[in-house]
Amino acid sequence: MSYEIVIGIETHAQLSTVSKIFSGASTAFGAAPNTQASAVDIALPGVLPVPNRGAVDRAIRFGLAVGGTINRRSVFARKNYFYPDLPKGYQISQYEIPVVQGGSVTIATGAGERQVRLTRAHLEEDAGKSLHEGLPRELGEVTGIDLNRAGTPLLEIVSEPDMRSAEEAVAYAKALHSLVTWIGICDGDMQEGNFRCDANVSVRRAGEPLGTRCEIKNLNSFRFLAQAIDYEARRQVELIEDGGRVVQQTRLYDPDRNETRPMRSKEDAQDYRYFPDPDLPPLTIDDAWIERARAALPELPAAMRARLVAQHGISDYDAAQLTASRELVDYYDAVSKALPATHAASHKIVANFVLGEFAAARNRDAIPVRASPVPPEELAELLRRITDGTLSRKMAKDVFDEMWSEGRNVSVQLTGVEMTALSGTVDAIIGRRGLRQTSDPGAIETLAGQVIAANPAIVAEFRAGKEKAFNALVGQVMKASQGKADPAQVNAILRRMLSLLSS
Amino acid sequence: MSFSPDDVARLARLARIDLDADAARDVRGKLDAIFALIDALQSIDTAGVEPMAHAQDLVLPLRDDTVTAGDCRELYQAQAPAVAGGLYLVPKVLE
Amino acid sequence: MTAAPHQGAYHAATIGELARALRGREISSVELAQQALTRIGESQAALNAFITVDAESALIEARRADAVLARGDAGPLTGIPIAHKDVLMTAGLRTTCASRMLEHFVAPYDAHVVARLRDAGTVLVGKTNMDEFAMGSSSETSHFGPVRNPWSAACVPGGSSGGSAAAVAAGLLAATTGTDTGGSIRQPAALTGVCGLKPTYGVCSRYGLVAFASSLDTPGPFARTAEDCALLLNAMAGHDERDCTSIDRPREDYLRVLRAPATARPLAGVRIGLPREYFADGLERDVAGAVDAALAELRALGATTVDIDLPMVRHAVAVYYVIAPAEASSNLSRFDGVRYGHRAAQYADLTDMYCRTRAEGFGAEVKRRILVGTYVLSHGYYDAYYLKAQQVRRLIARDFLRAFGECDVIAGPTAPTCAFRIGAKADDPVQMYLNDIFTIAANLTGMPAISIPCAFTHDGLPIGLQLQGNHFDEARLLDVAHRFQQATDWHRRTPAGFVA
Fold first, then answer.
1. Is the separation of the CB atoms in A373 and A419 below 8 Å?
2. For chain C, how big is the Rg over CA atoms in Å?
3. Given A99, A285, C17, C430, which residue has the most CB atoms within 10 angstroms?
4. Minimal CA–CA distance to A372: which of A329, A331, A322, A427?
C-alpha cells in the first residue's frame, strides 16, 4: 500500500530593515544582550507600536515578485500567548487579512519545473531569544532572555501543501531563499537565523483526503529539512500501519538523532484569541506605492536567465546556474562589464570561469561570493590576459589560484583595505613568475624544430596517420616551453612544419 | 450562560492567573451576572454591519526605517526582578 | 448645605486666578507649591487622594518656574501645581496604577501629556489614587485603599479617577489629570462637583498612558471651571507620532470661543438634544430635578432644546463590558513578573511563576475583567461576543451621528445617582457597571464630553450635568459649559473641612 507524502512549508524570512518593525531600535546582529531593546520592545507599560515603512515595502516587493495580490487594506492582529521571549504576552501579526495573498514559486526538480502555490504572506514581529544553556551554574535552573531580536520584522510565507517529496520541499526552500535574497528583502543567512522554515507533513493513501499533519520546527539547514521530512513521513506511515492515528502536534527535529519528537512546551490547540490590534488602524497601500515598488524590483531570475541566453550567448544551463544567486550573477555582471566588449566570446569566457575556477575555489574554501578575495575587476583583468593572448587558459588558472590565496592573506592581514586598490595584481604575478605566454612564432618554430628532430618515431607515426601522435608532439613543445607557448600557435606551427617535411 | 468550574479553570489557565477555590467560586458567580448583562446583545440584528474596531477612521501612519533608539539596558533593567549578564532570568524553560 | 466661606487666599482658586497672582508677584511658585503640599499632607488621612507625593522635585520645578516668571516668559500654566492620575507615566517618579503589580515601579519616561504639561511650566506635586488599572467607578479597588469623597467621607468620589477629582474638589489643587475609558473622568467629576473633560479620542496622545482599553482610553483634565479645562487642554492636546491613534490636525486654541464677551443670550442658536433614553424612569429624583433646572438655565441663556432618539444607546453598557475587558485582557498580559513589576517570591516553574505573580499582583476586579476578556475573545466565542459588540458599537455610533444632524450638543445627567456609600456596590459588579450608563457611549463613539456641577442633592452631594459633542467639537462644549458657569456658581462651592 503506497502512501503519498503531503508537505507544506511555512517560512519566516527576517526582513533586511535597519530598525525594527514597530520600534526604532537597531536590528543589527551580534549586539550584547538587551542593548537593542527599546521601551516598545520590552513592553514597558504605556508604550505603543509604530510600523516601519521599510518592512511594508519589502512585503510589497515580495508579493509582486511571486505574482501574488497585494491587499490594499490589511489588518494587524494580536496573537495572544504567554512565553518569556514574548514581552507583551502577544505577538503583533496579521490574521484574517494579510498584506499578500496567493502567488507562486517555480521549483526545479528531477522531473522538470513546476509551480508551488503560496497561500499568503504576512508581516509580523519576531520574539526574543531564550538561552537555555551556557549560563553560570550558580544561577540554578534558569533561562536567560535576550530581547534584542524582539520586534525584528518577519515576513511569514505560507505555501499550499503542494509538495510531494523531501526533494521538492528542499527545491522550494532553496528557490524561496534565492528569491528573497535576489530582490534584496532578506539577507538569507540561515546561520544567523534570518531564514527559518517549518515543515507541515502528513501522509495519505492515494485518493484519500488529507491526513492529519504535524508541524516540524528547528530546521536550520536544507539538509535537515530533507532529513526531517523523510523521518516524519516514515514515522507517520509506520504509526498508521500499526493501527495508530497521527495526532496533530508540533514536533522538534533533533539532528543528532535524526528524529522528530513532540515539543513539550507547546500545548496542543493553543487558543490565540486573535483580534485586530486596537493600537494600529488598518494598513493601507495605494496603487502609487505598488507601482513604485514594481519599478524598483530588479529583473527577476527567470527573466534574467532568458536575457543572458539571448543577449550574452551563454547556454541556458550556465544562465540557470548564474541566476541561482543574486550575488553570483552580480559578480558575473561586474566582471563582464569590466571586460572590453570587443571580444565576441568574452561573456562565455566569463561564465566559464565564474562557474568553473571561481566556483571551485569558493567551494573548496567555503567562502560566499560577497567575501571573495578576488574582486570582479581583478578577475576581469585576468580574463583580458587570456583574450589578448598573454596567458593560456591553464596559465590563467595558476595565476587565479595565486590571486585567490594572495587576496585571502591580504584580507586576513589588512581587514578593511579596499580590495579594488590592489590593482596590477595580475600583471605583477605574471611578471614575477615570468608567465607571459610565448606567442612569438620564431621562438615556437625553434622549439618545434627541436622536438621534431628529437622524436623521429612519433613523427613517423603521425605521417602514418595517427592523430594521437600529433598531440604527443604538441605536448612536447608545450613542455619544452615550460607551458608558456600559446597552444593555438603551437598547433598551427607544428602542422605547417610537419607538412613541409619531405616525404 | 452559566459558568462551570471547568470553564473558570480553563480561563484562569489561559490568562495565567491562579485562583484558589474561594476565588474561583466568587469569580463564577460574578461572571454569571456579567454575562447575563452581556448576553442581551445576542438579540440585536446586526446583519451586514461592519464591526467598529477603532473610534476613528484613521490612516495608519508609518515611520521611516531609521535607528532612533539606543542602548537603554541599564535604565530599564534597574528594576528588573532577576537579571544576570544583561539577560532577564526566568525559571528554566523545557522545550 | 451652604457653601463654605473662602478660606485662605488661594484655596479653591482657579488656574486663571493663580496665574494672575503669580504674574502680579503676589505669591511665588515655590509658595504656591508649598501651600499645595501642606494641604495635601493635611487631607491625606481623610481623603487618601494621593499615592505618591514628591515635595523635593516639586520645589525644584517651582523654583524653575519662578525664574521663568521673573524673566517675563511665563505662559498661562507656568508655576501652577498639578497632580497626575497614577496611570500616567512620570519619569523618575513612582507610577503604580494603584496596583500591587507596580507598587514599586519607577517610570523611566514621561507620558506625552505629562511632558507637554511639564513643558507648559506646571509643577508636579504627586500622583493621584484611582481604581486599580483604571477599572472601576468608585476608586475603591485601589491597592492603596479607597479614595473618599470630600463632600462626605463615607461616600465614594466616583472612579476610576477619584483621587484627581477629589484633589480639585477639596481645593488642594486647581488642576489635575485623569483618564476616561467608560466615564472615569466625567463620573467622578459629577460625584465631587468639579469639571472633568473627556476630549475626542486621539486628541490627547495615549503614549505613556498604561493601557486599559486601547480603543477607548482618553487622557483629560480636571479643574474647577470649563475655562481652566480649556487652558489645560490647550497644553495636553496635540499630535504624537509615537501613537498611531493620535490625530494629526491643525492646533486649536480651545479658549478662543470662550474669550468672546458675555452677552445676554450667549447660547442663542445652540440646539441642545435631549435623548429620551437618558430621561427614562429610574433616574434618582434629585438628579432628574437638577438636570431639569440646568436645562432651564441653558434655555434662559438662549439655547433651544429638542428631543432626540438614541435607540441603541441602551446597549452601550453591554457593548462596553465586552470590548473593554477584551482589550484589557490582552493589554495586561505584559505584567508577568519577567522584566519589571511584582514577581512572586516562590514558584515551582515558569507557569507557576506567571500564575502566582498575576494572582498576587492583580486585585479581584482586574482579575474578573481579564477573565471576561479572555472568554469573549476565545475560540468559538469571538463572533458571538467580540465581533457582535463591535457591530453594535457601530450602530450606536450611527445613532449619535444622526442625532448631531438635529442638535449641536447632547445634554443629560452624567451619572444616574449621586455619590454612594463606600462598600455599597463593591460586591455587585453589574450594579457598579450601571454607574457608567450615561458616560460610556462617548467612549464607544470617540466623541468628546464634559461634566460640570449643576446642583446638590438635599443631602448636600454634588450632581453633574453632562454635555456631549460631535467629534472635535470640544470647543463648543467648553463654551456652553463656560456660559452656564458665568450665570451660575455651582462650580465655586467647596466642601467644609478641606480648607488650607
1. yes
2. 21
3. A99
4. A331
| The pLDDT value given to residue A267 | 54
Q: Which residues constitute the domain of residue A148?
A: 3-290
Quote the CA–CA distance of A251 and A266 in Å, as a whole number: 9
Taking only Cα atoms into account, the Rg of chain B, rounded to an integer number of angstroms, comes to: 23
Q: Using CB atoms, pick whichever of A82, A143, A278 lies closest to residue C214.
A: A278
Residue at C355: amino acid letter: C
Cβ–Cβ < 8 Å for B54, A283: no
Q: What is the pTM of this model?
A: 0.89
How many domains does the structure of chain A reveal?
3
pLDDT, tens digit, for every residue of A346-401? 788 899 899 998 999 998 888 888 888 888 888 888 888 887 777 778 888 888 88
Query: Which pLDDT value is given to residue C304?
Result: 98
Instruction: Check CB contact of B72 with chain A, cutoff 8 Å.
Output: yes
Q: Which residues contact A156 (CB under 8 A, 6 or more apart)?
A: A10, A11, A12, A93, A121, A122, A123, A124
Q: Looking at the structure, do residues A386 and A494 belong to the same domain, yes or no?
A: no
Q: Using one digit for the tens of pLDDT, what is the confidence trace for A46-66? A: 999 999 999 999 999 999 999
Q: Which is more confidently placed, C500 or C370?
A: C370
Which cell numbers in the block locate residue A494? 607544428
Known catalytic residue at C137: no
For residue B34, list chain C residues with Cβ-Cβ distance below 8 A: 321, 368, 372, 429-430, 433
Q: Which residue of A has its CA nearest to C202?
A: A279
Q: What is the 3-state composition of chain A as percent helix, strand, coil, each rounded to the nearest 5?
A: 40, 20, 40
Three-state secondary structure along chain B?
Answer: CCCCHHHHHHHHHHCCCCCCHHHHHHHHHHHHHHHHHHHHHHHCCCCCCCCCCCCCCCCCCCECCCCCCCCCHHHHHCCCCCEECCEEEEECCCC
CB A40 within 8 A of CB A32: no
Q: pLDDT by residue (tens digit) across C99-138?
A: 999 999 999 999 999 999 999 999 999 999 999 999 999 9
The ipTM estimated for the assembled molecules is 0.96
Give the homologous superfamily in CATH for domain C10-267+449-492: Amidase signature (AS) domain (3.90.1300.10)
pLDDT at site C428: 82
Q: What is the mean pLDDT of residues C351-356?
A: 97
pLDDT of residue A170: 96
Domain ranges of chain C: 10-267+449-492
Cell numbers 462551570 correspond to what residue? B4
Tell me how close the Cα of A170 comes to any Cα of chain B, in angstroms.
Answer: 26
| Cβ within 8 Å, pair A32-B86 | yes
Quickly count: other Cβ atoms within 10 Å of residue C244's Cβ: 26
Does C318 sit within 8 Å of B38, measured CB to CB? yes
Same domain, A219 and A203: yes
Beta strands C81-85 and A195-205: pairing type? Answer: unpaired
Neighbours of chain B (3+ CB pairs under 8 A): A, C
* C contacts of A42 (beta carbons < 8 Å): 339
